[in-house]
Write the C-alpha cells for this entry.
Amino acid sequence: MNIPNKITISRILLIPIFIILLSVPFDWGAWNIGESELPISHFIAALIFIIASTTDWVDGYYARKYNLVTNLGKFLDPLADKLLVSAALILLIEIGLAPAWVVIIIISREFAVTGLRLVAAGEGIVLAAGKMGKLKTATQMVAIAALLLHNFPFSFIGFPFATVMLYIALFFTVLSGYDYFAKNWHVMRDSK
C-alpha cells in the first residue's frame, strides 16, 4: 500500500461525501450566475469532485516519477475513476443537468472495458489505461465539473460550455472504448 495507492483510495472515500451533497436537499441558498442559479451545495460538490479528480493526476504522476507503479494501482486507479464518474453522472441525471442517454452510453462503455479487464486478469494480464482512455477521463471530468457548476463562468456570456464538453466527453468515451477493444481483442479471442 504505497502513497499513490493511498491517494487513489482517498479519491474513493470522497465519493460518499460527494453523493450526500447532491442527494440530500440542503437549503444553503444559491448564487445567481448569468441566466441560471448555482446552489451552494452543488458548488461544494463540484469542489469535492474537482479535488477527487485532481488526485487522479497526482497519484499517477507520483507513481511514475518514483517508480511506484503496481498491479494494485493499475486496478484501483481506473476503478476509482469509474466509481467517481458514474456516481457523478447518475446524480447529474437526478438533478436534471445531464441527459440519461448520454450517461447510459458512457457507463456502458465503462462496464464493457471493465469486463475486458476482468477477462485479461483471469489470463494473468493487467491492462493499464492508455492515452486515449486518459483523454476520455479528462474530458469527462471537465464536463462533469462544468455541469456541477451550472456552466459557470460561461453562463455569463451564454456559451453552453458544459453541454459542449459533455458531448466531447461522449465522443472520446466511444472512441477510446473502440480503441481499447481494438488493441486488446486478442485477450477475448485467446481466453480459455
